[in-house]
Amino acid sequence: MYLMDGKETAKKVRAEVKEEVKLLQHKPHLLVIWVGNDLASQTYVQSKEKACNSVGIEATTLHLSEDTSQRELIQTIQEANENPHIHAILVQMPLPNHLDEKEIINAIDPRKDVDGLHPVNQGKLMLQMPGIIPATPKGIMRLIDNYCIDLTGKKVIVIGRSMLVGKPLSILMLQRSATVTMAHSKTKNLHELTKDMDVIVSAVGKPKLITADMVKEGAIVIDVGINRVLGTIVGDVDYLSVANKTSRITPVPGGVGPMTIACLLENVVECYKLLKND
Ligand code: NAP
To answer: Is 25 a catalytic site residue?
Structure first.
């Protein structure tokens, strides 16, 4: 078993971003909009801000109260769209229940949509046109490339079908000529399906979802899940039992997480460049 070290790979990506930022005329500026008081969101927002600062990107967090209305939030986004000093906008999810996430994402200028969730960016991904790709799937592909893994003809299962991770990742892997199966909460016989796979990606959020009996000898396992268990962070994979069966595996923490942050930084720079090219 060999680790796919996201921490080390992310360091390289971050160093590249830092160099690129130095060459830009202005500092790219990310606006993070955080609505409500979700504690996990607070941690994510702070780590994004810190990561931006470490590579010379300016980051501002706008913290709005839990009872912010749909109209107020959209107006805030529209102001940020029009503000020439803001190059990238991230609305921290999840939003409070009374807000309509799809409508909120739709309000973001696609060129500033750093999470790549706007229909324009999701459509471009589908059509293999240049656009903003969500940071987690992008980071996973970077990790795969860093370890020179050829996906051509490989049987891949992506478990989880969110717009942020599972769906875009499936498309990206399909574009690399993998044979992709998508699984979700209604999938029958997940245990049987995974046994036949060369690559298993779990993006669900359930500890110990993937156990050793589900994994073929020599498979590659990519664990996207982040779960808090007894004060520690674990993935979806029962790492201790699964790792020995794999040829490559991502740890949690230190696997996909750091790659997500590194590719988010890359996306901020991409947004900046998209705007400056206009
Ligand atoms: P999400 O929107 O909640 O999606 C979860 C997906 O898992 C859904 O498609 C759901 O199916 C599926 N699912 C739920 N239970 C299942 C089961 N028993 N068997 C198979 N599939 C099941 O979550 P997300 O935003 O994609 O995130 C997924 C996980 O990745 C979370 O733990 C999140 O914290 C983590 N994450 C990590 C990073 C990172 O950087 N490491 C980044 C983003 C997310 P349905 O569609 O049928 O409901």
So the answer is: no
